[in-house]
Design brief:
This protein folds into two domains: about 120 residues, Nucleotidyltransferase, domain 5 (2-Layer Sandwich), CATH 3.30.420; about 160 residues, 2-Layer Sandwich (Nucleotidyltransferase, domain 5). Helix content is about 35%, strand content about 20%. The chain contains nine helices and 13 strands. Strands 1, 2, 3, 4, 5 and 8 form a six-stranded mixed β-sheet that branches. A five-stranded mixed β-sheet has the order 11-10-9-12-13, with helices on both faces. Strands 6-7 form a two-stranded antiparallel sheet. Helix 3 crosses helix 9 and helix 6 crosses helix 7. The longest helix has 24 residues. The chain is globular, with a radius of gyration of 19 Å. The N and C termini lie close together (about 10 Å).
């Protein structure tokens, strides 16, 4: 789905800052050099006041999109759960911002940040021309966003593509506890957080940049560990292939810089589990930190 003609503002609320930018009527886009600190110590109201002031600084726009980590109620737009932005849980961000900015109802639209990053990559990044794709974000945890038949898919309850919480090793088989309350989730094997843990347990550096540099330089334990992490990540991706017949994957997030070292393990596992589908394609995201706000701007311009 392509946005209607207009000038659209995207806001990407992260755990520490809000990144933003504008997509112009001709399709060009520019990220703001300024960011807004995500300061929630005083509760949601002062932060939303600051967010409204931040949005005003972009001038007149036709609509605003907001990406935020967490689960949104599809019916009301309320943020139902967010591990990193607990003070905002219960807030209905769209109407709150509309009221502060004096905008008509429906002018501000909201969505999960990983979903909107997928939407941005499909529109302006590594997913251009693809009708079906899964975005995987490797960072503190593992997030996911899903495009099906050319459309952003969030699911009936806003929980679609929580790929980081696919259980790949059950608790009774030694799966480690996860922050979601389960155990053996994919992110306990392949997130940046757990890549560092696995490196320490192997007696290696937990500086991931250094780990990768050593892995690229020569065969050895660093390369072997990253290959093993890739194999575990491939398990999660293979479930997506089996369930949804999606074979195009875009990998983003801070740990995506290791994709060249993870990829052999990813493909080894996916090839071993492939049944009747084309060979999966796994590429690095093209938009970096801009994907979220670009996807949010696209959401703002979607026909209602």
């Amino acid at each position: 789905m392509s946005p209607q003609s207009g000038r659209w503002l995207g806001l990407d609320i992260g755990g520490t800052t809000v990144k933003a930018g504008v997509v112009e009527p001709d399709g060009s886009w520019e990220r703001s050099p300024e960011v807004l600190p995500t300061e929630l110590a005083g509760g949601p109201a002062p932060f939303l006041d600051a967010l409204a002031d931040f949005a005003r600084g972009f001038g007149a726009v036709n609509g605003i999109g907001i990406g935020c980590p967490g689960v949104f109620d599809p019916a009301t737009g309320a943020l139902r759960a967010s591990a990193n932005l607990q003070p905002l849980v219960g807030s209905i961000l769209g109407p709150e911002l509309e009221q502060r900015l004096g905008l008509p109802k429906g002018s501000v639209r909201v969505g999960n940040d990983a979903n909107l990053a997928a939407y941005g990559e499909q529109w302006k990044g590594a997913g251009v021309g693809l009708d079906d794709l899964c975005l995987v974000t490797l960072g503190t945890g593992i997030g996911g966003g899903l495009i099906l038949d050319g459309r952003l898919y969030g699911g009936t309850h806003g929980m679609a593509c929580e790929i980081g919480h696919l259980v790949v090793v059950p608790r009774e088989q030694g799966g480690l506890p996860c922050g979601c309350g389960s155990a053996g989730c994919l992110e306990t094997f392949a997130s940046a957080t757990h890549a560092r843990r696995r490196a320490r347990e192997a007696g290696l550096t937990d500086d991931l940049e250094e780990l990768c540099a050593r892995g690229r330089a020569a065969e050895g334990p660093e390369r072997a560990l990253l290959h093993a992490i890739g194999r575990d990540l491939g398990r999660g991706l293979s479930y997506v292939v089996s369930l949804l017949d999606v074979t195009d994957f875009i990998v983003g997030g801070g740990f995506s810089g290791a994709l060249d070292l993870l990829l052999p393990g990813i493909m080894e596992t996916m090839e071993a589990r492939r049944y009747g589908t084309p060979e999966p394609r796994v590429v690095r995201a093209a938009l970096g930190e801009d994907a979220g706000w670009i996807g949010a701007a696209r959401l703002a311009g979607d026909p209602a």
